[in-house]
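Fill in residues.
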């Protein structure tokens, strides 16, 4: 059967333009408008609310039903039965690894956890109080200066080694950001540890003691990493794809993703949640802040509530909520004033008509912020943890795009609303 078409009739044309309708394996159909520019017209969709920018087989989201699948596996199953490194393998290779593949992958990652000693000198160029995301943008981009031997993006082996290096080095760099900001020595990775154990080890251990990370916290961090590993074409992933479409090297593209993630509407939300909880300060002030968030003349929003895609619930938030309770109970922090504010806020917002009607539910960052805070990770490091988790998603999307046939630079158009062509005015005649 021939592909179905949508017909578009422009006001000044008699013939309809036929636009193919494409169907993926799941999710809504899309109208392929890529031939429209041949007719001298473009579509207009600021914020890309109605636009699919690419084909992808990595992640599927159904925002209405609250479904998130990676290569067909539900996020709930992955969070319950898998671990972050296995999810990395899945996102990169398309299948869960068998025992041998898993061991080889882990070995390869561990082989790349160190960063070049020269790179550690970069940190000294930053102020100690620099925002760690600012430092991450710099040092991740700088990785491209160290691997000139493997930057041929057309070579699959080069692409693979870049992916491994990025996934392996992100925890080391993230921990270095933290250690630098508090004036402690950098802690080298330990390859006897799991990925998440190693992250907590490099973040919190000091050469003068041998404390091992608490297993409950290791599990919680691993869940946070799994839940943030990928989320299809969000702002930062789209940024990575856009940067990559020009042929830029993967380290530069991931640095671009980090910058896009930084904003409070995206990865900066968990940091913003904590700042908001501090600002609210006491359960008795919650009502005032709820009212402010509804006031059209007030820019205040309840951070950690709402999502561009999930309009009923965020499946990641369900898992995080459970982990949040486990961590606070392990650390005996259920009476923590910030946690009490968070629970009350969650309760009130879930019953409030404004939030119900606008389908604003606590999202993953609402709970991850509370967990990271309880673990002792400073607020300004939250988005760094998100960026290290999302690196695998970014690199999986970058690889998918680069290895597909017919790569061409992404170049959106615009609806120009500026001045029409006008004569130049010499200085003496200007107002
Ligand atoms: N508090 C109060 N009102 C809100 C909120 C909020 N958090 N979020 C949306 N609204 C209102 C908004 O004012 C608008 O009202 P109206 O229809 O009267 O103009 C309506 O809900 C729709 O908002 P929108 O901005 O058009 O929705 P969006 O889909 O563009 O925005 C969002 C999604 C996540 C940017 C937004 O909900 C928000 O700013 N949330 C707080 C920040 C946050 O938690 N971000 C993390 C997202 S999860 C992490 C990730 O995946 O990156």
């Amino acid at each position: 059967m021939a592909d179905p078409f949508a017909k578009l009739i422009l006001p000044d044309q008699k013939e309809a333009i036929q636009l193919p309708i494409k169907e993926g394996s799941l999710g809504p159909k899309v109208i392929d408008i890529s031939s429209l520019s041949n007719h001298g017209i473009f579509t207009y969709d600021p914020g890309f609310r109605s636009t699919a920018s690419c084909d992808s087989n990595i992640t599927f989201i159904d925002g209405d039903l609250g479904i998130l699948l990676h290569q067909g596996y539900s996020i709930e199953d992955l969070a319950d039965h898998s671990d972050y490194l296995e999810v990395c393998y899945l996102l990169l290779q398309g299948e869960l690894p068998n025992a041998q593949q898993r061991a080889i992958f882990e070995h390869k990652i561990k082989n790349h956890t160190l960063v070049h000693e020269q790179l550690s000198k970069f940190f000294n160029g930053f102020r100690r109080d620099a925002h760690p995301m600012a430092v991450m943008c710099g040092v991740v981009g700088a990785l491209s200066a160290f691997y000139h031997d493997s930057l041929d993006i057309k070579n699959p082996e080069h692409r693979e080694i870049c992916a491994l290096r990025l996934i392996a080095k992100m925890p080391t760099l993230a921990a270095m950001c933290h250690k630098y900001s508090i004036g402690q020595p950098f802690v080298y990775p330990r390859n006897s540890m799991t990925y998440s154990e190693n992250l907590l080890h490099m973040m919190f251990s000091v050469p003068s003691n041998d404390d091992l990370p608490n297993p409950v916290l290791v599990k919680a961090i691993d869940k946070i990493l799994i839940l943030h590993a990928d989320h299809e074409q969000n702002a930062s992933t789209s940024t990575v794809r856009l940067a990559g479409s020009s042929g830029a090297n993967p380290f530069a593209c991931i640095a671009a993703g980090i910058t896009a993630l930084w904003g409070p509407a995206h990865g900066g939300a968990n940091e913003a949640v904590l700042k908001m909880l501090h600002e609210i300060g006491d359960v008795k002030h919650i009502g005032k802040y709820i009212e402010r968030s509804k006031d059209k003349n007030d820019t205040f929003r309840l951070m950690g509530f709402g999502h561009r895609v999930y309009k009923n619930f965020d499946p990641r938030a369900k898992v995080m909520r459970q982990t949040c309770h486990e961590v606070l109970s392990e650390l005996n922090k259920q009476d923590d004033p910030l946690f009490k504010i968070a629970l009350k806020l969650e309760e009130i917002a879930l019953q409030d008509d404004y939030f119900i009607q606008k389908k604003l539910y606590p999202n993953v960052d609402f709970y991850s912020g509370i967990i990271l805070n309880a673990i002792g990770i400073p607020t300004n490091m939250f988005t760094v943890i998100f960026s290290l988790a999302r690196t695998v998603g970014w690199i999986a999307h970058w690889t998918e795009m680069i290895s597909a046939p017919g790569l061409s630079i992404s170049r959106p158009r615009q609806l120009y609303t500026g001045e029409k062509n006008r004569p130049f005015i010499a200085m003496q005649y200007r107002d």
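The two ends are 66 Å apart (CA to CA).
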